[in-house]
Amino acid sequence: MHRSDGGIRSKAEEEMKPFSRKFSLLALFAIIGIIAVAVSDYSNAYRRSRNSLAQVKTLSQYAGVRYNSESARMTLFPFLEIGSLPVVTSLSIEGGVPPSVFKSSLSHMPSLTSLSLSSTAEDNANHSEYSDGHLKAVEQLTNLRELELFNAAISDEGFRSFCRSGNDNITYLEFDACNTLSERGLERLDRFSSLQTLVFVNMEFSNSALHHMEGLPDLEHVYIDGCDNISDTEIENFSKTYNGRIEIVCLDH
């Protein structure tokens, strides 16, 4: 009886072999298909990235680039590639770029006049994608006119060092939720002698932040929004001191 069961089992196995081979071939074809689709997507993404880069390179000297580090990783459009675009005058970055890559790329952008850095990290004090090292790299942009910092972990000393770098061409400066920076970091703000517009949004500055604007001869506009530690009384006194020469606007009032 045992020998009979073995014979039946052997016969069944022999009959199943064609089906097994067929299944294996189907699985192989399926895997090949998946790989082909992935390679196609990869190739298309790479082609789109290269085409985008080529289009930007053909633009005139007034070119702007908006760069998102998360989507860039998906479309293979690395930030280092943007560094080969000397025609770029305006650059907006969302998400982090390593400091070394950031510095190297900016060194190839001599025409850059407007720069916006926005960290997407929730805890900017400990995990911001922009810090003093990035600000140090910005010092090489001698033609920079406008700088916006959102959610950046800039220290007081880091910003004072930036002020001392000697770039007096900046006319527009904006801080938004850069809460590692206190009013003490503004002590050398007067080095930006060409500054015309200053924007504080969701900052933890106290009243003394206003006093650091006194040495700015070209300052015309100050916008304050969500800065609860700057009192209305101090804002009024500041406005009276300059007799309307400086327009100060509280956007949250």
Write up this protein:
- Residues 48-63 and 71-77 have low confidence and may be disordered.
- The protein is α/β, with parallel strands linked by helices and 253 residues long.
- Strand 2, helix 4 (99-106) and strand 3 (114-118) form a beta-alpha-beta unit.
- The protein has two domains: 1-58; 61-250, Leucine-rich repeat, LRR (right-handed beta-alpha superhelix), CATH 3.80.10.
- The protein is built from nine helices and eight strands.
- It is globular and about 85 Å long.
- Helix 4 (99-106) runs parallel beside helix 6 and helix 6 (132-138) runs parallel beside helix 7 (156-163).
- It has helices spanning 2-57, 69-75, 79-82, 99-106, 124-127, 132-138, 156-163, 208-211, 232-241, and strands spanning 63-68, 88-94, 114-118, 146-150, 172-176, 197-201, 221-225, 247-250.
Throw out a few tags for this protein:
Leucine-rich repeat, LRR (right-handed beta-alpha superhelix); 253 residues; 9 helices; eight-stranded parallel sheet
What's the total number of strands? 8
Q: Tell me, what's the shape?
A: globular
CATH superfamily of the largest domain: Ribonuclease Inhibitor
Strand order of the biggest β-sheet: 1-2-3-4-5-6-7-8
Figure out the total of helices.
9
Q: How many domains, as an integer? A: 2
- CATH-defined architecture of the largest domain: Alpha-Beta Horseshoe
What is the residue-averaged pLDDT? 75
Q: Regarding CATH, which class of the largest domain?
A: Alpha Beta
How do the helices and strands follow one another from N- to C-terminus?
Answer: HEHHEHEHHEHEEHEHE
